[in-house]
Design a protein that fits this description.
Elements: E1 3-6, E2 10-13, E3 18-22, H1 36-44, E4 52-58, E5 66-72, E6 78-83
Antiparallel strand pairs: 1-2, 3-4, 4-5, 5-6
Length: about 90
């Protein structure tokens, strides 16, 4: 069981949260000029590294707010938690 620290509510059990995918994915624009390949890449393809990854999390059974988590996919250790409006940290420095 993981203990996740919501930046708004504090430390809570992982069952209150939902991991919603890789963080910092940018929707391709302009929408009228996006090819089918670009759209499919945006919708379906994500990195799956062995090591650190940035994920979007939702405090579903708490405040209902979204935030980013830097998590090690091997150990599940959380290295950083930050609000959606904050820039992605340097993963090399963590």
């Amino acid at each position: 069981m993981m203990l996740i620290t919501c930046p708004f509510c504090g430390a809570r059990d992982e069952n209150e949260f939902r991991c919603a995918d890789e963080g910092h994915i940018i929707r391709p624009e302009p929408y009228t000029d996006v090819s089918a390949e670009q759209w499919a890449d945006y919708l379906f393809y994500r990195d799956n590294p062995k090591g650190l990854i940035v994920e979007r999390w939702h405090h579903q059974h708490g405040c209902g707010l979204w935030f980013n988590v830097v998590r090690d996919t091997v150990t599940h250790e959380i290295k950083a938690i930050y609000e959606m409006t904050e820039p992605k940290p340097d993963l090399e420095a963590l």
